Amino acid sequence: MSFRITSDCRSAPFPPSEPAQVFPELTEREHEILALIARGLSNQEIAQQLNISLKTVRNHVSNIYNKIQVTDRVQTVLRAREAGLGTEGEED
Q: Which end of the chain has fewer CB atoms at under 10 Å, N or C?
């Protein structure tokens, strides 16, 4: 029985864009914002889309930078896209 479960797990595809597993240190909201950053949205556009204040977006972005150890938006986009976020096939 355990062999079958183990072999099933090995053969099951593990999507690289599963946010919780890609960046486990981020909150659900931070994952959401990171995906929007990776798609190229500005802080203002993110605030409007999520119906939150610009200040709140800035706070989340700052937390994301610290948690994924980047210093700017370009590095953030690169890390997110390497993880499969912000791509056309990604679901929101």
A: N
- Enclosing H/E stretch for 47: helix 43-50
Q: Express as a percent the part of the chain with pLDDT over 70.
A: 73
**Please, which residues have CB within 8 angstroms of residue 70's CB and are 6 or more apart in sequence?**
76, 79
What lies within 8 Å, CB to CB, of 16 at 6+ separation is: 22, 83, 84
pLDDT at 22: 86
Domain extent listing, the chain? 27-86
Whole-structure pTM value: 0.73
Architecture of the domain whose range is 27-86 = Orthogonal Bundle (1.10)
Our CA angle for 12, 39, 13, nearest 5°, is 5
What are the tokens at 66?
Answer: 């610290």
Place of tokens 């119906």: 51
